[in-house]
Amino acid sequence: MLDRSIQPFIREPEQLEVLSPERRVMPNGIPLYILNAGDNEVVRIDLLMEGGRWQQTQRLQALFTNRMLREGTRCYSAAAIAEKLDYYGAWLELSSSSEYAYITLYSLNKYLPETLDIFESIVKEPLFPEKELGVIVDNNIQQFLVNSSKVDFLAHRTLINAVYGDKHPCGQLVQEEDYHLINPSVLQSFYDRYYHSGNCSIYLSGKVSEDTIRRVEVIFGSEPFGKGFLRPEKSIYVPVTSPGKRFFAERADAMQSAVRIGMISLDRRHPDYMKARVLVTLLGGYFGSRLMSNIREEKGYTYGISAGIMPYPDSGLFVINTETANEFVEPLIKEVYHEIDRLQNVLVSNEELAMVRNYMLGDMCRSYESAFSLADAWIFIHTSGLSNSYVMDAVDAVKTVTPDEIRELASQHLCKETLKEVVSGKKMS
């Protein structure tokens, strides 16, 4: 019989085997990355275009260009696209980031010819119909207005603007009037500039056969498509941080306040980044973290508090975020600085560091357990300009970081004087 009163032995993963994608170059020059893994007859196609917020000429241009691809093409109406994808059991995802647009199709292999036909039309011949665009813009305006009444939304906007400034893409805050400036011609111009075969890469993951590769190559790799064929130049933006320490976004009727504490931090290529991730996880990156143990479990100031580094091109945003009752804002912030002081002055115990290591290694194992999660990982690596050894380097950093290094990293990269404090909620007298 299993004795459930005895804790199972914790064993650290000895090594992490991560499948690397096969790289091919199609006749028209598009790189094709293939991750053939998994037993289910499902394939995922990720088509990446290098064009995001960093390249747009007005706010929301990149977002709505990508979002509108499914709303009508030369061959299919929006209703027909939705109906056919549903009929064939396929799923389409559209998203955009700082520098990339992502068009993702999940399809059963047996219906791939039919779903690829729709996918090709979405990528190559969208129409950006005015009626559908108007409906989507109106819906987004309503969602924006709802979000604008939430303290966490206001706190995040205030923080990134304070840290990056109005001239930086991160710090440029969308306003309601920006939605009204979106029209089909604005989207068409962005599409024409960035959605073409000279600015594209494709990832295939799942159960990928040679027939699947051939079909993708015939549709997307045999001839150039799009206009211009010029790759975007690398855009460099310099953050201009606002002076001052405390920023307040008032919401007079708020029952509780959102608190954000943050600053510009390491980008993903910095030599300290991987071991700094261990430091941030220790501070507030998992349920047993220092911030959770103190501020949630011991003090009871909040239901949850977390810390992390949000990656952006050429920088990262270190941020601590939580919500608390209005009267607990000041003691909560005091305890955050207390935990930073402890990390800078007191060596973390080997037992606590081992627990963080096991958590992070287990999380990595989950991140690379399926073909689709592997595709996500390699897309992140390639779009971030990281080396192919990134995964193993990350594992090595987690395994080898020492208590002395944690203390040194905390002293170097958790500068209390640089941290900006943002509170959104009801002003307390």
From TrEMBL:
Matches recorded under InterPro entries: Metalloenz_LuxS/M16 (IPR011249), MPP/UQCRC_Complex (IPR050361), Pept_M16_N (IPR011765), Peptidase_M16_C (IPR007863)
Alphabetized Pfam families for the sequence: Peptidase_M16, Peptidase_M16_C
Organism of origin: Bacteroides oleiciplenus YIT 12058
Single GO MF descriptor: metal ion binding
Chain ranges of the Peptidase M16 N-terminal domain: 62-139
Residues of the Peptidase M16 C-terminal domain: 183-358
Name of the featured protein: Peptidase M16 C-terminal domain-containing protein
Organism placement in taxonomy: Bacteria, Pseudomonadati, Bacteroidota, Bacteroidia, Bacteroidales
